[in-house]
Design a protein that fits this description.
single chain; mainly alpha; two-stranded antiparallel ribbon; 5% strand; binds iron/sulfur cluster
Length: 255
C-alpha cells in the first residue's frame, strides 16, 4: 500500500529529534491531545489514541476524524507543520453539537449489549435489568446504538438552553475537560479489558493444567477397581476349587 504521508511530512519526521522519531510516543501523545476523544472509531482505528499513533507513524492521514471537524485537521496540521487539508468526509460528517445517547428504559430488556459496546463505560446496568446512560460521561460515539436488539437507544441533542454552550459546540477539543475525562475512562476500560483477558487466559491454563491430574486420579481409580476385581476373581476360583476337591485344601487333620 502506498504511504499516506507526503514526502514533506516524511522529511519532517526524519528531522525530528531522536526521542520522537524513535519512539513516536511524544508526537502521538501531542496528536492525541488534539483529538476530541469521542472514541467512535470513524477514523478507521479503534479509538483516538490508536489513530494518533497511526498519524505519528505515517500510517494515517490527518483528516480522518469527523468529530474533530476541520478545526481538528488544522490543529494537527499546525502541530506537524504541514498544510491543512479538507476533512475527509468518507469517514463521516461532523455534528453541529455534541449529542448524547438516551435509552428508552421502558423497552430495555437488560441484554448488556450496549454497555459492552460503550468505549468509555458510560452505560450503567446489569444483566436482565434496565440500563441507563450517564449523560455526563457519554461522548455521543453511537457505538451502543447498532447492538441494541430493542432499538431503544437514540442520540439526542443537548437541552435547548445548552445549545450555545461552548461545551456542546463542534468537537476538536472545545471542551478539553470533557475530552480528558473521556480519555481517562477509555484508558481505564482498555486496562480493565486487558486484565479480564489475562484472567480468562489464566483460568483456561489452570483448567488445562488440571486435566492430567484428573485423568491421573481417574486412571488410579480404574486401576484400583481392576485390582479389586482380580482379587475377587481369584477368591472365587479358590472357592470353586475347594468345593470340587474338599480334601485337597484341608488343614491336615485327615492325613
Ligand atoms: S473521535 Fe476522531 S480520532 Fe477519536 S475515534 Fe472518533 S474519529 Fe477516531
Ligand atoms: S453511551 Fe453510547 S453513545 Fe454514549 S459513549 Fe457510550 S456507546 Fe457512545
Ligand atoms: S442493548 Fe438495548 S435492550 Fe440491551 S441493555 Fe442496552 S438498551 Fe437495554
Amino acid at each position: 500500500m502506498a504511504p499516506i504521508l507526503s514526502d514533506k511530512l516524511r522529511k519532517r519526521f526524519a528531522r525530528m529529534p531522536i526521542n520522537e522519531t524513535h519512539m513516536n510516543q511524544p508526537l502521538a501523545e501531542q496528536i492525541d491531545a488534539i483529538l476530541p476523544q469521542t472514541q467512535c472509531g470513524k477514523c478507521g482505528f479503534p479509538g483516538c489514541k490508536p489513530y494518533a499513533q497511526a498519524i505519528a507513524e505515517g500510517r494515517a492521514d490527518i483528516n480522518q476524524c469527523p468529530p474533530g471537524d476541520q478545526i481538528g485537521v488544522q490543529k494537527i496540521a499546525g502541530l506537524l507543520g504541514v498544510p491543512p487539508k479538507p476533512l475527509n468526509t468518507a469517514h463521516g460528517f461532523p455534528k453541529p453539537y455534541k449529542m448524547v445517547a438516551l435509552i428508552d428504559e421502558s423497552l430495555c430488556i437488560g441484554c448488556t449489549f450496549c454497555s459492552r459496546a460503550c468505549p468509555v463505560d458510560a452505560i450503567a446496568g446489569a444483566v436482565k435489568q434496565m440500563h441507563t446512560v450517564i449523560a455526563a460521561e457519554c461522548t455521543g460515539c453511537e457505538l451502543c446504538i447498532a447492538p441494541c436488539p430493542m432499538d431503544c437507544i437514540h442520540l439526542v441533542p443537548p437541552a435547548a438552553e445548552n445549545l450555545n454552550n461552548a461545551d456542546n459546540l463542534p468537537a476538536a477539543g472545545h471542551n478539553r475537560q470533557a475530552a480528558d475525562l473521556a480519555r481517562s475512562r477509555y484508558q481505564f476500560r482498555q486496562q480493565r479489558l486487558e486484565r479480564e483477558k489475562q484472567e480468562a487466559a489464566g483460568k483456561a491454563l489452570e483448567r488445562k493444567n488440571n486435566l492430567p491430574s484428573r485423568f491421573e486420579s481417574e486412571s488410579k481409580t480404574a486401576a484400583e477397581a481392576r485390582k479389586k476385581a482380580a482379587i475377587q476373581a481369584a477368591l472365587a476360583r479358590a472357592k470353586t476349587i475347594r468345593t470340587s476337591h474338599p480334601g485337597t485344601h484341608s488343614s491336615g487333620k485327615n492325613a
